[in-house]
Amino acid sequence: MHRVYMDANATTPLLPEVMEAMRPYWMEHFGNASSIHRDGQLARTAVDRARETMARFFNCHDAEVVFNSGGTEGDNTAIFGLLHPGDHFVTTSIEHSAILQAARRLARHGIDTTFVAPLPSGLIDPIDIRRAIRPETRLISVMLANNETGVIQPVEEIGRIANETGIFFHIDAVQGAGKIEFDVRRIGCHLLSISAHKMHGPKGIGAMFVRRGTPVEPLLVGGSHERRQRAGTENVAGIVGLAKAAELALHSLEDGTIDRLAVLRDRLEAGILEISGTGVNGVSEDGQTVLRAANTTNIWFDQLEGEALVIALDMKGVSISGGSACHSGATEPSHVLMAMGLDKNRARASLRFSLLKTVTEADVDHVLRVVPQAVEHLRALSPVAAGTLG
Question: Is the pTM here over 0.85, yes or no?
Fold first, then answer.
């Protein structure tokens, strides 16, 4: 069976160039980067070069790059590393669970959080962020691009607010990195988190931008790794893979790959919307889709259970999801879509299509053939459509 993977926001496969860059650091150059002998120094050189690449990716100094295990650790570090009892935290109700669950834990330690709701389009209004600020507010955290809808947030405007008010600003850029051009200097953030496996790099490795002078306490203590900002023997192969993925991502932002991806996403979206009883989650009041990550669309299908459609499409060779992979199997509808004002039925009937950079016209054609068939079949079984619902 021909299979098409359209769940890139959950994870992505390694690109061949990334795999090849990593291979020597599992085998020939396996040394510990903290060792002073030749094997260790070969590993140290690889880490240093990777740090230089990530500094270009973020547009920061080498010393402001901290390698870690991924987005969740980065998000947790920003929150637990900066906030203390009596502080106030401002974030949004559409963040990843790595932010939301950390904020709930803070409440047990005397730290209050304000969760700013989005507009129905999924956008966060910077004015609402400003209104949420209190004298004791110490940190603002807003994602760059939403993992479920792809909606890109106005982080530069929020950065200006943080700068004007003297508040630390963290960005979860896990879903935006590699798809959206960004610059930590232009944004004005103090911290930013990314994860390699969302942009065709390996799982279990990520990086943070930590602006010089930001008083973040490390989550992990022990050795002097990462300038004492994150203890633990460096994952050299993973770090090399992350850097290669970042390098390739920079090229894709310049060579038309992302523009091509947006065109294919739009063609997929337009084709699915020809099915009756469908619509896009992420639309402004005037009916226009808002700015989104180039690879992502979130579509509702009336008179359907989204999970049933995920299963039906999987049987036809198409992998998609109902939202964040971190909540796969959850019985509750998406907190993102609920925060945008969807009712439970429509939220449960919504699916995310997120395309790989390697997607082809043939892949889109295949999905556009099988989705209408699956929808028609499931709707025929629906008690609403059949008129058997009392």
Answer: yes
